[in-house]
Amino acid sequence: MKIEVSHLKKYFGATRAVDDISFTFAAGQVVGFVGPNGAGKTTTMRVLSTLDEPTEGDATIDGVSVVEEPEQARKLVGYVPDALPGHRDISVHDYLDFFARAYGIKKPKRSLVIGGVEEFTNLTGIREKTLHALSKGMKQRVSLARALLHDPPVLIMDEPAAGLDPRARVELRELLRVLAGQGKAILISSHILTELAEICNAAVIIEQGKLLMAGAINELISTDATRRTVIIRPLGSPEGLVRDLLEMPHVESANPAGGEVVVEVSGSDEVCSDILIALIQRGYRLAEFKQHRAGLEDIFMNVTRGEVQ
Where are the extended beta strands (E) located within the chain? Predict the structure, then answer.
């Protein structure tokens, strides 16, 4: 199972919401879809879910084109939008029953399918509650349950953690891990990069509709491997330390911050080791000298400019 996005473009008048992006992801991957507001994430997700047609380009799900074969592609995708779609004055169970019918699930099997997704998403105890009475976290569970009714191999989730309390976020994260373990391919957007970093093994970063980076997170980190951030906590005033650091080769910046000095270094781990040795030789006494390991948030900040359309 592979999802391939190829030269996808989506224009709204003169606005290029999605501007020639290409990337792939596969079964078992949880892909973080990252970008500033207005970057084109939701538009891309709607195209992949067959809700919008692209202006140009295509995407295929297991070889099925979302442009040429939208009905067939739709069977392979479960879409979880940022807000629960549908009526608010019906019960959870009736809501799921309505969509199960829409998916063409026949009556003998329908009760088993609905019961299964209710149990998986922990909705059994509230199945008779109306949607408008549910918390944001429970509504997200209902939306996920609806997307799972037809057991799609691909899940596309638009900001599912937005507005959730910490407990609901943890529970959602665990559900996604289970689904990925079942072999589902998951594309998930979020502004909470620390949350994405904990569950994603790949990322796609876009800005102003253009693709900036895509790939496994560890590979993306390695592409930025020539930069290091070092945190130094001296015993004593940092003023002389900052001055000496700025005179050293490969040190791009050194800024005091709350008793520490944050140092940006260009080079390898050996360069950081040389800096430590030089400081000790100059008589500095250090309480701490550590490298900050780059993560998804660092990659995002390095490659984006925070611009929107």
Answer: 2-12, 15-26, 30-34, 56-61, 64-65, 77-80, 154-158, 185-189, 202-207, 210-216, 227-234, 251-257, 260-266, 286-292
- Over residues 35-80, the pLDDT tens digits come to 888 899 999 999 999 999 999 999 999 999 999 999 999 999 999 9
CA distances from 89 to 33, 92, 131, 259, 291 (A): 32, 9, 6, 56, 54
Q: Between the CA of residue 56 and those of 23, 62, 178, 287, 298, what are the distances in Å? A: 15, 20, 35, 57, 32
Domain shared by 242 and 192, yes or no:
no
- 34 CB-contact burial (10 Å; exposed 0-12 / middle 13-18 / buried 19+): buried
CATH number of the domain within which 261 lies:
3.30.70.100
Residue type, 3: I
Q: Are 94 and 169 within one domain?
A: yes
The conformational region for residue 119 under phi > 0 = left, psi -120 to 50 = alpha, else beta, is alpha
Which residue from 196, 142, 207, 182 is spatially nearest to 31, judged by alpha carbons? 196
- Tokens found for residue 276: 């430590």
The pTM score is 0.79
For 261-296, write each residue's pLDDT tens digit: 999 898 777 899 999 999 999 999 999 999 877 677
Cα separation, 273 vs 289, in Å, equals 10
Residue 114, CA distances (Å) to 62, 87, 144 in order: 26, 18, 12
Residues 193 and 95 occupy one common structural domain: yes
CB atoms inside a 10 Å sphere around CB 280: 12
Quick one: 235 and 164 in the same domain?
no
Q: Is residue 11 part of a domain?
A: yes
> Which DSSP string do the residues of 125-171 spell out, in sequence order?
GGTTSBGGGS-HHHHHHHHHHHHHTT--SEEEEESTTTT--HHHHHH
Domain count, the chain: 2
Which one-letter amino acid corresponds to residue 19? D
Q: Which domain holds residue 174?
A: 2-222
* 307 within some domain: no
